[in-house]
């Protein structure tokens, strides 16, 4: 059975896990590299570092488990 949260198995180069209410990161699974916690500002540069030609708006390349393009609320100075 296919594990949708594993980008190597899901077919997505990038799989963004669901939002956690108590953190500023989203877990992002990068095919071939595993999972990394990324902030909103880190997401695009990191994904483009791994997949330079990726189309971030293409749902066949970047899968969002929930709330596409959204990140947990967080303000500078918070832990």
Q: What do these coordinates show?
A:
The chain has two helices and four strands; from the N terminus they run αβββαβ. The protein is of the alpha+beta class and 79 residues long. Strands 3-2-1-4 form a four-stranded mixed β-sheet. The chain starts with 6 loop residues before the first helix and ends in a 15-residue tail after the last strand. The model is unreliable at 1-7 (pLDDT under 50).
**What is the first-to-last residue Cα distance?**
38 Å
Return residue spans where pLDDT drops below 50 for at least 5 consecutive residues. 1-7
Structural class: alpha+beta
Content of β-strand: 15-25%
User: What is the residue-averaged pLDDT?
Assistant: 85
Gross geometry: globular
| Biggest sheet, spatial arrangement of strands | 3-2-1-4
The main pleated sheet reads as: 4 strands, mixed
Output the radius of gyration.
12 Å
> Secondary-structure element order, as H and E?
HEEEHE
Summarize the structure.
The chain is an alpha+beta fold.
Any key phrases for this structure?
79 residues; alpha+beta; four-stranded mixed β-sheet; 2 helices; globular; disordered N terminus
Lay out the secondary structure.
Blueprint: H1 7-10, E1 14-16, E2 26-30, E3 34-38, H2 40-50, E4 62-64
Parallel strand pairs: 1-4
Antiparallel strand pairs: 1-2, 2-3
């Amino acid at each position: 059975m296919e594990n949708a949260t594993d980008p190597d198995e899901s077919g997505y180069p990038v799989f963004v896990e669901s939002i956690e209410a108590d953190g500023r990161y989203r877990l992002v699974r990068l095919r071939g590299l595993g999972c990394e916690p990324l902030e909103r500002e880190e997401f695009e540069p990191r994904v483009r570092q791994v997949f330079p030609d990726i189309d971030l708006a293409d749902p066949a390349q970047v899968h969002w488990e929930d709330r596409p393009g959204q990140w947990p609320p967080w303000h500078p100075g918070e832990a």
